[in-house]
Amino acid sequence: MKAIRDFDWMICLTVALLCILGLALIYSVFYPHEDDTVNHTNLLYLKKQLLWILIGCIAMFIGFTIPFRYFETLAYMYYIICVVLLVGVLFITRTGQAHRWISLGPISIQPSEFTKIALLFLWARILSGYTRNPNQLKRLVIVLGVFIVPFLFVLKEPDLGTALVFFAMLLPVLYWRGFRGLHILFVLSPFISSILLIYGQEIAQNHKTLPFGIYIVLILIIAYRRRAFLLESLLLVASNVGVGLVLPGLWSNLKEYQQDRILNFLNPGSDKLGAGWQVFQSKIAIGSGGITGKGYLEGTQKALEFLPAKHTDFVFSVLGEELGFIGALAILVLFFILIYKALALAEKSRSEFASTVCIGIAAYFFFQVFINVAMTTGIAPVTGIPLPFISYGGSSIVVSFFFIGFLLNCSVRWFEY
Amino acid sequence: MGKRASWDERLGRTRRRWLQAFAVFFFLVLLIRLFSLQAVEHAGYAKDAEKNQFQRLRIPAPRGLIVDRNGEVLVDNVPRFDVVVPWKREESALMMIRKLSNFLTLDSTAVFARFDIWAKKNAGLPFPVVKDADKLIISAVRENVDLFPQLRVETRARRRYRKGLFASHLLGYVAEISDEELANSDPRDYQAGDVIGKTGLELYCEEHLHGIHGYRVVQVNAWGTVLGDVDGPSIAPRTGRTVKLTIDAKIQAYLEERLAREGTGAVVMMNVHDGAVIAAVSIPRFDPNSFAAGINQEEWDRLHNEESKPLFNRYLQATYPPGSTLKVISASVALENELVDPEELLVYCTGAHRFGNRFFKCWREEGHGWMDLHNAVVQSCDSYFFKFAETLDVDELAEAARAFGLGSRTGIELRGEARGLVPDRKYYDNKLGKGEWTQGHVLNNVIGQGEFLSTLLQMCRVAAVIANGGYLVSPHVIHSIGDDYHVVHPKREIGALSKRTIQFLKRAMRGVVEDKDGTAHWCRVDGLQTAGKTGTSQNPHGKDHAWFIGYAPANDPVIAIAVLIENAGHGGEFAAPLARDAYRKYFEKQLAEQKPPVGDQTGLAVGLGGRHRESN
What we know:
The complex is a heterodimer.
Chain A: H1 2-6, H2 9-29, H3 42-65, H4 68-91, E1 102-104, E2 107-109, H5 111-127, H6 137-156, H7 160-176, H8 181-202, H9 210-225, H10 230-253, H11 256-266, H12 277-289, H13 315-348, H14 352-376, H15 394-412
Antiparallel strand pairs in A: 1-2
Chain B: H1 2-40, H2 42-53, E1 54-59, E2 66-67, E3 73-85, H3 90-103, H4 108-121, E4 127-130, H5 135-143, E5 152-161, H6 168-171, E6 174-176, H7 179-183, E7 195-197, H8 200-204, H9 206-210, E8 214-220, E9 226-229, E10 243-245, H10 249-262, E11 265-271, E12 277-283, H11 289-292, H12 297-305, H13 327-336, E13 347-349, E14 352-355, E15 358-361, E16 369-371, H14 373-378, H15 382-389, H16 394-403, H17 425-432, H18 439-446, H19 456-467, E17 471-472, E18 478-481, E19 492-493, H20 499-514, E20 531-537, E21 545-552, E22 559-565, H21 571-586, H22 588-594, H23 601-609
Helix pairs in contact in B: 3-4, 10-21, 13-16, 13-20, 15-18
């Protein structure tokens, strides 16, 4: 009885709203343009999306009904199945496409999506328990080993976006299990150094080393304040200074087209006719939407095929164009509710396993939404990350629904250990 | 248990708050970004979206026609088909071009090279892959729409010069606009790849012939494919205006063929009363069509390097010593300034004239005997003119020559007209130094041999001035442009030319043809009294140039003519017959009415009698 009372209807409502919005957008994307005679696909996509949502609901039901200790027990097995599928997908060739999908009859699935679940469960299992402190080197090596195998396979597909999501989910999980902030900084800071250096090299003409200099000063201050952990602090400083010494040489050794590729990745708006064309058109769509949008079904950018991947990765551009700032705000609020709920459940749940998984779920939604919206508005690289519940596409929806099922599971079994 | 829970709880709360703050912060970043795109920069993106969606397509205005005085069309337009690729991104355009050039087996390197230039100058404008495509290519493209959905076949107008070589110097030609011209023009009028008048009337009348382009607004998709017209502003093109010439195509064509048989040279025929040019011929000619179709390097080099200079306009840009044709002006100076008594037998010509310690030779070595002014003009006796030039002031001659229009442009509607040269005291002082030149120069000038230089157009006008009784007309070739007839062609009376002088000159020029001693006597036309003056101008580079100026009919002049044949020899022998044939052609109808067509004695005599060696 207690369980029924604690069931979180708010999460259900939020997801329902997101799904309805997603269906409406898919319908709009394939809404036949008046001068376009070839398009009969709008209802087809709508039906397929509906089917995926139904399958997602089954996944949600599974995630909701099965007590999470079973998930904990089965984590290794599930992980191994996923890795095998990831290896398998590399051997399935499709002409001109990345090796991402496995066909199962009429539908095709992306094992990399399901690997997100497997990773979360396994990390949570490895790190839960009083003594299982991620600050212990042995624990950390196991967690990183679990992470690195699927990470490399997914990179090989190649699917940089999903690989980055794995990484983005790992850090909050480690943090939640007590991993020290200094360590997280140690992992992240060399990347930040590199980006600052490249930006300085190519964009800030007169102050090449200024951003990096400021950053190093910040690092030094942090290292000094954490001087109690002497070894870690020294390593932190050394790794950043090392990057600063080595990277400029490496950079100048790259061919010009290689440099261009990296710069276009970091600053997608820069090349309007080449790689940045998609982003440029997406910005036009969103910007031209204004505060209230052009009206549902009235978008011109999507109707005239200016938007690339407009029903999958760039569906947010259609939303921005047709529903404007208000629509975009609504979507962000809905997603924030989900993230907030996941964080609250993580705090509330007594099971360390469940609480860790909830953190991972929050990180998953946060990172997917942030990168997707940032990509369509031109402030993040184009990596092909879908918007949960909204973007057309099967595996992503099923996984998102499963996570929702798990959250609901936690909301009724929060007291279980 | 409780201890662990409390530790976990405390730590859990802080960490959850940190994570929550992290999420809030980055969502706020997104919101700020969205706000800046959708509210702050909204107007710019809205405009971009519109630009994406709508495209103004130009409807090119057809170029105006050029017709002759009888309305016969000389220059018009024919449709030309270009296969064009609309493009926005270079990669997609290159892919399309590669596919297409494989399909049509084009020389892909050449097309890519052309595209490179095009892309630099006109980013985003549809690129013409195949210019002036033939039927085969067009049907190949049309039948494979599914392979090349983006390709468009665009109709453009190609300039057609109907008669090929005909009047090429006068009509000029069009060719693709140069970068420089493009930079100096209004982008609404010209785009890269357009044609523009380069020489002749095509250049002079460019603004009238060009017309005003129309526009229509179309909706396009991301690949530049036109989805359809959009209701709203569209402007119909305005065809360029028709330029009607004073040229008579029949006479022009006849004279071109006639002169081409003789060699290089030029002929100008004009109306003596208003200066309307009836024919203007320069030989050799070129074919303007080869420029309009896009000339290749070989042809270009040939036209520019050939010794006969086919692009050089010989009645407009070339200057020649006028030779004895100048004697009509010299004679008028003698009469007006009363330097001689026309009745007096001034000189006994022995074939040479002694001045100081120099001998000036008359063209006729055996001499002319006793000469008065009339006979001196009719027989073109140099000695007579040398004699009176002994006391002639150089500026008096120069002044008269200028009054007849030498030394300045006639103002005809063609670019590149030469001025010629009228030597006067200042000229000699500058060139040779004060006191360093002698009256001997004047003796040479008076027979048109010294430093005098004139164009054929100027000399034709000299004949017209005498024919019309002393009025300096403005030569022109444009009759009207569109409906605009109000073109003023000023006509000025030469003040210092008395009726008596004109009467004398007319009689003398008639004598040149009609008197049996006249230098052009054997070029008479039966049933038509004509007048003229022959000339032979010495040419340091080769044989003499043959000159003839004249007008007809002698009693009531209608047309004036000037003929020059380069390196031919004596004017009476080579140039005058051409003028005779021109008269016959022009007065064909009148002559046919006067007498039955059989037994044309003169024509027969000329045909059989061969060429007299006696002329100048």
